[in-house]
Amino acid sequence: MRSPLGQLVEVGEVRASQGGMARFRYLQRYALVLITRGEGIYEDENGRERSLVAGDWVLVLPELGHSYRPLVSGGWDEFYIMFEGPVFDLWREEGLIEVGRVSGRLGDTAGWIERLLGEVVDADTGTSTRLCRFQALLAEVLEGSVENWTPVVDGPRWFADACRLLSQPEAKVQAVAAELDLPYETFRRRFRQHAGMPPHRYHRQQVINRAAHLLETTQMKSADIAEAMGFCDEPHFSHAFRQYTGRAPSEYRKRH
């Protein structure tokens, strides 16, 4: 779908995505990602983090390093549209697309996707007309943009917020429960019901995953990684890493 105004490059769907995205990746075009099932996290190189649940969206900007991924096994389902062109650059110049508002909530995701397919992708009309219709649909999405998510105890987002907070190396389970305004024992029980493991184990697992990523992608010394991940010393880090991966950090780095 080409036009002097721009084009839709690709429209597709991913089911049971397991993530695995590099931190961070860069696209050469815009992309709108709609979460249709599951829970996850969005983060970018500007330090923004968002908890994501079904009905939320992420707008990827061409030059902004970003990462988004599901939180638990089973992944999530997503619908995406990649697009580019002068008309969308003009949107940015006019402030309709802002680097500070790259996520939000759509709500009726299924209805919006149905309209996109019927009015734009499968429509029997000219390319420029279809592109204009897409712009109208994109405007509806951006009306639901937000600058910051607030932790919510009720509804699906509390678990995504909990996972995001527990993914930080310095996280403390009691502090996360307090931030979500939940009694510690209630939080621990509810988290285990959703994740299949207690929050302290989830936290340690995420910290080890981050450490493994640093071992794979950087030349940081094991002692520096241990400090960055909040371990008291390198032997403590090495012991915990071996418990979760079956290998010492040095062995893991050689293999990967």
TrEMBL record:
Residues spanning the membrane: none
ATP-binding among keywords: no
Pfam name, any one: AraC_binding
InterPro entries: AraC-bd, AraC_XylS_family_regulators, Homeodomain-like_sf, HTH-like, HTH_AraC
Keyword Secreted among UniProt keywords: no
Protein name in UniProt: Helix-turn-helix transcriptional regulator
PROSITE patterns recorded: HTH_ARAC_FAMILY_2
Keywords, in A-Z order: DNA-binding, Transcription, Transcription regulation
Molecular function as annotated in GO: DNA-binding transcription factor activity; sequence-specific DNA binding
Superkingdom in the source lineage: Bacteria
Organism expressing this protein natively: Haloferula rosea
Domain HTH araC/xylS-type stretches: 166-255
Coiled coil: none
